[in-house]
Amino acid sequence: MIEVENGKNLIVDFEYNGGDFLNPKRVINQDGIFFFDNRMAFETWSRASNRGDALFAESGKIYAVLGFPKIEVVSDSALHFTWSGEGERPAIHLMFSDSFIGDRHGRGDNKPLSFSRTFGGNTSFFHLPSEGRVDIDFDWQFLPSTYSHSVVQYGSPNGSIFLDGSPLSKQYGLKRFSNFDQFRIKRLMEQKLGFVRPGAVFSMPSQGYCNGGGVHDGRDITGFCTYRFEGDWVSKDPNNMKARTSGGLAVEWVGHSAESPGKFIELESAKPSKFSGLKFRFNNKTELEVLHPDFTWYHLASQEWTGGTSTGSEFTSVKIDGIPIGLNTNGDFWLVFGEENTQARNLSARTLNLFDRIPAQGDVIACNTGNLRDLNIIGKPSPSQLEVWGWCIQEGDVFESEGKTCRVKKAERKWKTWGQLSNSLPLAQIPKREDRRVTFTEITIDQELAQPITQVKLKVISSRTAKLLDGNYREEGEAYWGLGNEAPGHLMYTDYNVNLLIKNAQISGLIRSTSRPLWAETKAEISGNVNSLQLIPIQEKLWSAGDQIFLLSPDGKKIEKLEVSMSYQPGSDRLSVISKELSSSFPQGSVVCSLFSLCGKAEFDHVYFIKENGEISYSNRIDYRPQGLRLRQLIQKKEDCRVKIIGGRMSWYSNLDNRFEPEIELTQTPHLVSPTGSRPILLNPKISDGKGAVFGHQSKEVDKEEIYVSYYILARQDEVDLSNSELGADLYLCGNGKFYLNKLRTKNFIDKGKDTGVGFNLVFEERFDYSNSLLVIGKEGKAGLMIASPFKIGTLQIDLAQWELKPGLFNGGGFQTRQDSSSPDYAKYIQINK
To answer: What is the largest CA-CA distance in the chain?
Structure first.
């Protein structure tokens, strides 16, 4: 801003004022936020040697900052952002709109100089030390930037509130951050303008990034590193906090109250799945140029295809003149040009190199085993089918082969792992890896080719895409992110070792976690006197001399306490311990762990699934499996080491492949709904207050019939008490153990808004485990029964008294069985009395 003429007229140095740089004109009907940059003031305060622990601000004051202030926090310190508690909270307003980080390879790694000059180059608020006690209480309001670029993953910096970059953090204490008025600027915009400007997002930064935290005494955690976020959090990328070496990290999301729950929402709507109106031009057979004022290749960049950490399936593509062209993945480029190669893609704002070349007349496509770049025919499923890699083949393309003219009848994009490719074409250049993929086009032609794959040659006669090589721009092109709005980010990306509390919250989005366990397995049987343990190597530096560890048999029934005598070196297959005579032998595959590496809390207290727009949701996914809870339960014999679900409406599913899948405790009658993409199954749930739960749900999708989602409960040598529970859909009971069903009842099935009077069923099925003893006991219940498997007589025992067999879906009589009911012993084991 150059000059204030008066209270209503300003002179500014915008180059585009009036549309004429040389002759600026007066403009009207524009709006903006005029501010003084306070970033340096906050940074100066935070570095002052004589500053106090508290920073007080007047109610309602807003302090704008051009970019994130860098608050460097020292060990053993406290910071308190305080106010009077009356009126509006004072606020820090992040002026970060339209900031953009694009680097040459589309990985979001390097900040351009223009970004640093404008915003300071820093993208985190609190920079935390790697050790010592740190207590932070941010009781002001943080106001996010108004606008942000619409990107798939990289490019538009989201920033973070907390940053602890240490790989082995020993920092602990409580970091509390309140967010009770995130949309204050949106509200002001509505008041001043009467509407909200298109493109305004108001996305909060990420809550933070860390690899752990907390301290221990060699036995157990003595000080947790707790990050508590109160109020709401609506963001494109809300949380990325993990615990790599310790069970001392805790993340807490706490809403306003049970009556007014907080909203913790992933802004999927701010992540595009398609960019339209693009102009494309091929500069050669692989280099594709894009021209658009609001789109660069950085906007489409993501970790799957521009050199990130993933090598999954092909999710990105473009459409030019109506022709779809895939952009392949890291797996293709890395196999040919080297692991983590970013040069071959040669991505910039306007241009990138495709992996698949555009075929022109005369090109020859063959299986050249001497050069991976020309290894272009990688499979021949049948005489009329070929797998073509590295060329953009389309339906309708015409080739000459074996003296025949061959037309492509069908072209379908598929993938196979490097290992599968190596098995079909055993070449030394192809590593046998199952975590890497190549993407190819499977074509079906109208001729049959007799030659083996290594001799097949396709000479291009005509190609649908050859016209794109004329050097002209094509209008109205599109770029796609194939998975839509779900894949680019997550509501939370954590891991199994984090202590997690979500309370009084409505959530929307995927809670995803990595499964890296903080324990090791033995390579051989161990018995007698030991002074070392032979391990399958792990890469974490978990144990130091003097630490206490536990040796558990694979079933967790035998436990031995040991002490480390020499610090473990990551990657070593040997752990030295103080000599001890073992009480029994431990087989190969036994587990070595320490209590301080195991989480101790996982609690969902009145958590409700919602959609981004706030509507009720019956389907979301929580992919968080704190196996450390189960290990801690086995070692300490503590019954409260369970995943606790207290009231609410959410899903849970037990992963039966996990070695130490945690037990689930249900209280205050939670409603268990659908876990998106997974079978809704619970292993040995405990309903500790006797109030039951609601299992499954029924809902109506737009323009569809009523649907219902059933739950499975698996008992593994345990007692499961479902008394006072309610069926919101069919409930399947499986496994081995005892089920108690006192006063269990069913809801009615609703069809097109009308109550049918028909309920849901209890279904007994042999699934997941072979059943040899399944006992069902109950009284005063009301639900139909279905024995869906032909259990051996005596394996399933049902003893229900004062039970009403209510007609159920596909069970009009209220009872069905696949057992041999004519057996003389059938009535001895199946007793249902009204």
So the answer is: 102
Give the pLDDT of residue 485: 42
Q: What are φ and ψ of residue 816, in 5° steps?
A: -140, 150
What's the CA gap between 401 and 453, in Å, rounded?
Answer: 12
**What pLDDT shows up at residue 818?**
96
pLDDT band of 488, cuts 50, 70, 90: very low
Give the pLDDT confidence of 211-238 residue by residue, as tens digits: 999 999 999 999 999 999 999 999 998 9
- Give the model's pLDDT for residue 28: 74
Q: What is the DSSP letter of 192?
A: H
Q: 400 and 407 in contact (C-beta within 8 Å)?
A: no
Beta carbons of 674 and 695 less than 8 angstroms apart: no
> Would you state the structure tokens that stand for residue 776, as one six-digit string?
């069902």
Amino acid at 723: S
Question: Residue 46, SS3?
Answer: helix
Tokens encoding 188: 């002001």
CA–CA distance, 785 with 832 (Å, rounded to integer): 10
What separation in angstroms does the CA of 189 have from each of 194, 202, 596, 672? 7, 12, 49, 39
Res 85: pLDDT: 93
Which of the listed ranges 310-324, 413-427, 568-582 does the model predict with the highest average pLDDT? 568-582
Closest CA to 153 of 302, 318, 265: 302
What's 193's DSSP letter?
A: H
Ranges of H-type helices in 691-800: none
Residue 494 has pLDDT above 60, yes or no: yes
Q: Which amino acid is at 415?
A: W
Identity of residue 490 = H
**3-state class (DSSP) for residue 358:** coil
Residue 744 vs residues 689, 733, 780: alpha-carbon distances, Å: 15, 13, 8
- 468 and 599 in contact (C-beta within 8 Å)? no
What are the residues facing 697 on neighbouring strands?
Answer: 709
More confident residue, 518 or 404: 404
> Over the stretch 34-63, which tens digit does the pLDDT of each residue have?
889 999 999 999 999 888 999 999 999 999
The owner of tokens 């593994």 is 716
DSSP H helices, 586-724, are 627-636
Nearest to 388 by CA among 362, 416, 361, 360: 416
Q: How confident is the model at residue 676 (pLDDT cuts 50, 70, 90)?
A: confident
Find out whether 264 and 507 touch, Cβ atoms under 8 Å: yes
**What DSSP character marks residue 221?**
E
Strands 643-646 and 664-667: parallel
Give the bridge partners for 680, in sequence order. none
| Coil/strand/helix, residue 370 | coil
CB atoms within 10 A of CB 240: 17
> Considering only CA atoms, which of 42, 56, 27 is closest in space to residue 140?
56
- List of residues 6+ apart from 784 with CB closer than 8 A: 746, 759, 760, 761, 762, 805, 806, 807, 808, 811, 814, 815
Question: Residue 255's closest CA among 502, 621, 622?
Answer: 502
Residue 287 tokens read as 């280099």
By the 8 A CB rule, do 633 and 600 touch?
A: no
Residue 630 structure tokens: 């189960």
Query: 185: how many CB neighbours lie within 10 A of its CB?
Result: 20
Q: Is the pLDDT of residue 551 over 50?
A: yes
Q: Which residue has the tokens 């950085």?
A: 298
Overall size of the chain counted in residues:
834
- Give dist(CA 823, CA 130) in Å, integer: 70
Alpha-carbon gap, residue 361 to 368, rounded angstroms: 19
What DSSP designation does 539 have?
Answer: S
Q: What is the pLDDT of residues 604-655, one digit of tens each?
A: 999 999 999 999 999 888 999 999 999 999 999 988 899 999 999 999 999 9
